[in-house]
Structure formats: C-alpha cells, structure tokens
Amino acid sequence: NSVIFWHRRDLRVSDNIGLSKAYQHSSKLVGLFCLDTDILNQDNVAPARITYMLGCLQDLRESYQQLGGQLLIFQGNPTQIIPQVADALKVDCVFWNNDVEPYSKKRDNQVIEALQERGIHSQTYWDQLLHAPGDILTKSNNAPYKVYTPFWRSWLKEEKANIAQALGKLESLSEEEINTVKNLGIIDLPTAKDLGYSWDAPLILEPGETAAKEQLNYFCDSLIYNYQEQRNYPGINGTSTLSPAFKFGVIGIREVWQATLSAYENTYSDEARENIQTWQQEIAWREFYQHCMYFFPELATGPYRQEFKDFSWDNNEQHFQAWCEGKTGYPIVDAAMRQLNETGWMHNRCRMIVASFLTKDLIINWQWGEKYFMQKLIDGDLSANNGGWQWSASSGMDPKPLRIFNPASQAQKYDPDGEYIRLWVPEISSLDTEYLVTGKIPPLEAHSCGYLQPIVDHKQQQREFKERYKQIKN
Ligand code: FAD
C-alpha cells in the first residue's frame, strides 16, 4: 500500500524523521508539497524567501526523481488538498513533521480530522528540533522555561537523537494514478515571478540540500573555531549563513549537531571548543524560541508582558519609512537596513542594533519592525523573528536588563574601521572612519555627500523611552 509524505518546512530527503518513518512503512511513497494560498496571500511574504524556497523545492523534486519516486506540487488550501489527494491515491496513511506555529497547529488538526473522516491515518513526528516542546521542562514544576540560560543548561544535558535512516529506492506512481489527482490542484513548479514576486540579487545561501551541507561542512571546518569573537563583526563573514536552510529544513538538525561534535573532536584546544559551544548555543536559541511559540502562542500577536499593551509608542510614519529605507542619518543603522533590503539577510549584530533603534530611539511599536523583517528576510521565521523583536523591545519574557543599544558605541566596537558602513552606505565611504562610526558627520560634509542629518537625537530619545517605560512598570 502506498503512503504520502507531506513536506512543509523539511525540504530535504536526508536526516528527515517523518520521511524516514514513512519509507519504513512503504517504499511506495509519494512526496507532496502544497503552496498554501493562505500563506501566499498574507502581506508578509519576502521575495528572497520565496525564491529560496522554490529553489529548494526544485532540488527536492530532483532528489525524489533520483530515488525513482515523485514529488507532486499543488497550490491551494492544504486542508482540502491533502485529504482529497490521499483519497484519490487510496493511501493508507499520510506522514508529516510537526510545526510549532499557531497557524500550522490549527491547519494540521483540520487535516487530521478530514483524513479521519475518510478513514485515512495520519502519523506526525518532531523533526526540526533536537528536543521537542515538552521535552525540556523546569525541574521544579515541570513547566516550560521562560528564560534562556537555564533552558540551555538543561537542553545541553539531554541526549540527542542520531541522524535519521536514509531512504532507499522509491516505487513510483503509475501514470494512471497520477491522472486521478491531476485535477486536484497539481501545478508545475512556479517561479517567484509567476507568484508575483521578483528577486534578482544573489541569495546568501544557494537553495537545496547539497549547498546547505557544503556550507555546514565549510563552516564546521573553519569559521566555527573562531565563532565566539568573529560573529560580532558584521563586516566579517564569521557566521554560518545557514539560517534559510534552518528555516525551511533544508538541513537536518541531527546532522548539524553531528557536525558540531566532529568539529569538537577535531581539536584539543579548550578555546576552540568554547567557540563551538557558542555556536551550539545559537542552535539552542532557535529551539528555545520555538518552544516558547508552542507553549505561548499569544506571543505571535502581541507583547508577552501585558503591561506593554499600554505602552505609548510614537509610531511616526515618516520615521518608520526612513528606518525601512536606511535613511535615518545613523550610519550603522542605515548600513544594516540597506543590507536587508538589498540581500534579504542581515547580520545578527545589526538585527539587534536596528531593532533597538526602532523601538528605543524612534519609539515605534516593535510589531511594525517585526512585520517589515518578515517582508524582507530570506530566513524570516515567526518564532525567531518574534523572539528577537520582543527581546529587543523588552516586551518579552526576559526583559532584564533594559536593553538600549547606543548606535555609535556599537559601530565603534563592532565595525571599528567602518568597513561594513562603507560597503552599504557608499555615499559616505570616503569620509573619515571617525565620522562613520560615531555618526557625528559635520553637517557640511554630510550635505556634500548627500547624506542626512540624524532624524532623532539618541540621548534625548533614550531618556524619553525610559520615562515611558517607567510609567508602564508602575
Ligand atoms: P549563525 O550565527 O551561524 O547561527 C546559526 C543558527 O542558529 C542560525 O542560522 C539560526 O537558525 C540560529 N540562531 C542564531 N541566533 C539566533 C537567535 N537569536 N534566535 C533564534 N535563532 C538563532 N533568525 C531567523 O532565523 N529568522 C528570523 O526571522 C530572525 N529574526 C530576527 C530578528 C531580530 C530582531 C533579531 C535580533 C534576530 C533575529 N534572528 C532571526 C536571529 C539571528 O539574527 C539569525 O538567525 C542569524 O543572524 C542568522 O545568521 P546565521 O545563519 O549566519 O547565524
């Protein structure tokens, strides 16, 4: 009997738990992906992200062909399409991997019910995390952690699963079988343009499993050993740039973990090992935010701290526009926003700087920034993005200390030669480094380069923010 494996955020064939289980059930396995129109119709779709995802789908389709099988691509509403296709193909069971997002949880439950009504089983697995929600709970009262550090300690101690079993040859569907599902919404793989998005710039990571694995190996053979320090400098390629692959599950998390353990074995230096552990901590941040989203779905729609609902934001539209376009007159902020707009990716240090600037200097609701990031980021992910924004806005679970970044000290420390600023804000690239990193560009010089004066005063805004913050705390 045949089975369906429904791909969502696991666009790969290797180290895929649900897919591996489906294969153990039957080698007459067909892969299915549904371009969910509800998701495509939202106004937070990023052209770079769609482009990357479609590239990964093409790669996945080829992987299926190499195994002798098929990946069928549909467009529409999965709660209707999955049960209809399962019915038409007369499969025993539909397999997939779970997701933590509130939307996906609801959708998946609807699919389970619709399958049940037709007498078809469903089997779901946790695949994208090393530890599923509920596996890491506080010792004192078996509750989800709300603070990262104790979560990390307990997460690290838990045993991690091995790489999932590889697939063998697949048995393909017959022409006749495929014909039965042809009118249920099957499409040829579209381009981003077909879907109404255009993206011409190079992507930070090539789509597909092979590219993600190569990047993982490259990172774990070299950059990981200096990660702790190098990751802070946006002008240096010191991080893995694997975030799009993590977002779409183009690389298996157990494989990633194994790669870090191998890097650990390949060195005897305590310092190098500390660097590896720092990267492992980032993997744990990703898991932490996903666990938080799973247990506290209300995070997706508002501040975790209720008192923040009354915070008096300025929400100045012009300031927001200037921030989006990288025209605030703060060189490090502008550089970062232009990197985002031009490449669909932004360095983590800069994500923290611009998020702090939007919320604490422009006093604009963090949700505006969260949405703008989703509209641009190749790795835009509800849990990580929301986690990052609530952390920066101090509206999240762990608001202490009150985080206010000073753009000038950040640039002085992390872009000391102004390399990153020069790259992304070319109109000021010939000015003295001192001007670039302090942001104190004499008005005449700024004017002759066509660069703006700062749209707000950091010191004054910081005082203002603290005043308003005090009011909600009382
Ligand atoms: P590396 O430094 O190589 O880290 C490895 C992986 O660990 C990343 O690919 C990512 O999957 C995970 N990771 C690292 N840092 C974090 C973190 N703070 N939170 C969660 N996961 C992390 N990351 C996203 O993947 N999607 C987002 O939409 C996103 N939005 C963010 C918004 C804000 C305001 C902030 C402050 C951070 C955000 N991050 C987001 C986290 C982080 O900036 C990116 O994961 C990282 O810059 C990606 O680059 P990298 O792959 O080279 O990371």
TrEMBL record:
Catalytic activity line of the entry: cyclobutadipyrimidine (in DNA) = 2 pyrimidine residues (in DNA)
Signal peptide positions on this chain: none
Cofactor binding note from Swiss-Prot or TrEMBL: Binds 1 FAD per subunit.
Gene Ontology biological process terms from the UniProt entry: photoreactive repair; response to light stimulus
Keyword Lyase part of the UniProt annotation: yes
Classification via PROSITE patterns: DNA_PHOTOLYASES_1_1 (PS00394), DNA_PHOTOLYASES_1_2 (PS00691), PHR_CRY_ALPHA_BETA (PS51645)
Cofactor: FAD; (6R)-5,10-methylene-5,6,7,8-tetrahydrofolate
InterPro entries given in the database record: Crypto/Photolyase_FAD-like_sf, Crypto/Photolyase_N_sf, Cryptochr/Photolyase_FAD-bd, Cryptochrome/DNA_photolyase_1, DNA_photolyase_1_CS_C, DNA_photolyase_N, Rossmann-like_a/b/a_fold
Pfam families, per the entry: DNA_photolyase, FAD_binding_7
Domain of life: Bacteria
Record domain Photolyase/cryptochrome alpha/beta: where: 1-130
Binding-site positions, FAD: 227, 239-243, 279, 282-289, 379-381
The protein's Enzyme Commission number: 4.1.99.3
Gene3D superfamilies: 1.25.40.80, DNA Cyclobutane Dipyrimidine Photolyase, subunit A, domain 3, HUPs
Annotated site location: Electron transfer via tryptophanyl radical: W313, W366, W389
Keyword annotations of the record: Chromophore, FAD, Flavoprotein, Lyase, Membrane, Transmembrane, Transmembrane helix
Enzyme class: lyase
A Gene Ontology molecular function term of the record: deoxyribodipyrimidine photo-lyase activity
Protein family (similarity comment): Belongs to the DNA photolyase family.
Protein name: Deoxyribodipyrimidine photo-lyase
Organism of origin: Crocosphaera watsonii WH 8501
